[in-house]
Write a structure and sequence with these properties.
single chain; about 325 residues; alpha+beta; Trna Endonuclease, Chain: A, domain 1; six-stranded mixed beta sheet; three-stranded antiparallel beta sheet; 10 helices; 13 strands; globular
Length: about 325
């Protein structure tokens, strides 16, 4: 089974359980780690987050001194560069910021307080359908445990898992054996990691040494929020290619997965074959809202957009 097909199956089973799931997110602070699947566990203020915006709020805005209490000049908050101005524009576009004009100057404020406790935990899942070709799997999982950016780390596989396999995987890492049509079996529960303490990130390896960087608890806290935010806005589905050979083929009853009947596999837009004609119109955002805790059209966003339109007039 192709790793992409396997990854979609893992995501579908998790979403069927009502989880907030995303694919292919950065999983390192200084390095280039990409985590295959991320599950965001809701926290006490999850509903407050869903009312803000369905999109990812730019991390730089969350790390600046922007709040709902007082409108401030954008340049004093994020700077006056082209990038800073683009950040403010994006903040307004997604509904997190609103503009005001005072004494002839443009100012911005947050539409509501950002709830830092909206997520309660992060689960990182490494997909390895075939354990017979482990590659650098053991080293990668040791890196994840050492950094402890995720509360729990899990290895998902199609393979029959033996005691020898388990002995080569760090004890802290959970193990799932996945049956794509049916679900997954938990072979070993993951051990909670110390996400609120400093960690060590392996950024490069050499035959005789490893280059590491310490990561403070504060850095981890900020980056965990970045991962959660990106997961909330991104999700896990891919756009449907505009190809008549592609159909929506659900996994475990979860729809919104583009399957190519000619290639007999799930595809991304770049994978589609060169067929004439149009593909199916599938609204993956509506499907995500129907099958997960993500909210596509929060009421607050609509009210803020109406207010913004009046300001522009």
């Amino acid at each position: 089974m192709r790793e992409f097909d396997f990854e979609l199956a893992v995501c579908a089973h998790l979403e069927r359980e009502g989880r907030l799931v995303a694919r292919q997110l950065a999983g390192g602070v200084h390095g280039s780690r990409v985590m295959d699947v991320v599950v965001v566990e809701p926290g006490p203020s999850f509903d407050e987050r869903t009312r803000l915006t369905p999109e990812t709020i730019p991390p730089a805005l969350l790390e600046s001194d922007i709040g709902p209490g007082r409108a401030r000049r954008p340049a004093t908050l994020v700077g006056d560069s082209d990038r800073a101005r683009a950040l403010v524009e994006r903040g307004v576009e997604v509904g997190y910021l609103q503009r005001e004009r005072r004494d002839g100057q443009k100012r911005v404020r947050a539409t509501a307080r950002y709830p830092d406790d909206w997520f309660g935990g992060l689960v990182g899942i490494e997909n390895k359908p075939e354990l017979g070709r482990p590659g650098d799997l053991r080293l990668q999982l040791r890196k994840d445990v050492s950094l402890a950016l995720f509360d729990r780390v899990v290895l998902a596989t199609l393979s029959h898992v033996t005691g020898a396999h388990l002995n080569r995987i760090p004890d802290e890492v959970g193990v799932w054996r996945v049956d794509p049509p049916e679900g997954y079996e938990v072979l070993r529960e993951p051990t909670p990691l110390a996400t609120d303490e400093p960690g060590i990130e392996v950024v490069d390896t050499h035959p005789e040494r490893a280059d590491v960087r310490p990561v403070t608890a504060g850095e981890k806290r900020r980056y965990r929020r970045r991962v959660a935010e990106r997961a909330y806005g991104k999700g896990w589905r891919v756009p449907f290619p505009d190809c008549p050979a592609v159909e929506d083929r659900p996994v475990a009853g979860v729809p919104g997965l583009p399957y190519c009947t000619r290639q007999e596999r799930y595809v991304r837009p770049a994978d589609a074959c060169d067929c004439e004609g149009s593909g199916p119109e599938v609204d993956t955002r509506t499907l995500r809202a129907a099958h997960s805790p993500w909210v596509r059209d929060p009421e607050g966003t609509a009210r803020r957009q109406a207010a913004l339109d009046r300001f522009r007039e």
